[in-house]
Amino acid sequence: MLDATTGAILRRIGVPAPPSRLAVDERTGRVFANTGQVLDARTGALIGHVAPGADVAVDAGSGRLFTVDGARLLIRDDATGRLLSTVPIADAQAVVADTRHHRAVVGIVPSDDEYFNEDTAIVDTRTGHVVAGATGAHGDVWAVDGRAGRAIAVSTFTSNETGSPISADIIDTRAGRVVRHIDLGASLRPDVVIGVDEQRGNAVVVMSCCAPWLRNVAYVIGMRDGRIPRQVVLGGGPPAIAVDAATGHVYVANLRDNTVSVLDTTHL
User: Fold this and answer.
1) Pairing of strands 217-222, 202-208
2) Sheet arrangement for strand 46-49
3) pTM of the full predicted structure?
4) How many Å apart are CA 241 and CA 245, to the nearest integer?
5) What does the alpha-carbon distance between residue 45 and residue 64 come to, in Å, rounded to a whole number?
6) How far is residue 264's CA from residue 268's CA, in Å, rounded to a whole number?
7) What would the pLDDT profile of 244-267 be if each residue is shown by its tens digit?
8) In the beta sheet, which residues pair with residue 67?
9) What b/e sequence results for 202-228 when a residue is b if at least 16 CB atoms lie within 10 Å of its CB, and e otherwise?
């Protein structure tokens, strides 16, 4: 756990298995890991457990916690962890929450290597009902812009398997339709992270290729129109990302270089 102002390490938290996804409920001050741990965001203390899953998301407005386990979307009360409902969704591997419009966007990634047949289920977070679906939305890495009512999905299931470019889809979270498909041009399967600046309506997609001599590349994508006003070459190595919406600065950690790149999205 870090101090968001100074970057100082406040506490190291031991968990049985390293989580690949985290979700934060700023209303209750809780952090949920996809490995099942529930932490106090203020102290870092372990305060509970829920069933683990492939991904986790929170809608603080409706007080709901969402996890997907490859076959279902599980909806819980995020204050108590009590299971409220289960929505069968085959091959559900990703979930993000549009808290402004009370939508959970569930990414479906087939397990049979048919990489371009993914669909998306849109779930009303207040009722647990599937209200729409976006056919043809490809993605295993997801993020959401609640202000724009858009989700972005980046598919890394290309590269050596098909030779096709890495692609991104922008989905309208209310209508449940793909509004823009974007080819990002990479040919080798990368590590991908996405940060969203809702205030300016931009997503920053950072890709790190497996080849050690190649650099991380950041694509700044407009969430409303899919425009790419800027492409930036960064340091090397699998990245991590954080967005400061107040300043429009995006911080990208370059693991191989032991550096941090800072992008200013206000001047594109």
Assistant:
1) antiparallel
2) 22-25, 30-33, 37-40, 46-49
3) 0.81
4) 13
5) 21
6) 8
7) 888 888 988 888 888 888 888 877
8) 56, 74
9) bbbbbbbbeeeeebbbbbbbbbeebee
d(CA 133, CA 121): 4
pLDDT tens digits, residue range 166-219? 888 999 998 888 999 888 875 566 788 899 999 999 999 998 865 555 678 889
Same domain, 262 and 171: no
On whether both 185 and 210 belong to a single domain, the answer is: no
Question: Which of these three, 189, 207, 223, is where a domain ends?
Answer: 189
201 and 136 part of one domain: no
Q: Would you state the structure tokens that stand for residue 172, as one six-digit string?
A: 């309208």
The DSSP element (H or E) to which 151 belongs, if any, is strand 150-155
Domain finish residue from 189, 216, 239: 189
The dihedrals phi and psi of 114, each to the nearest 5 degrees, come to -90, 85
User: Containing domain of residue 52, as a range?
Assistant: 1-189
Of 180, 99, 101, 96, give the one whose Cα is nearest residue 137: 180
SS3 171: strand
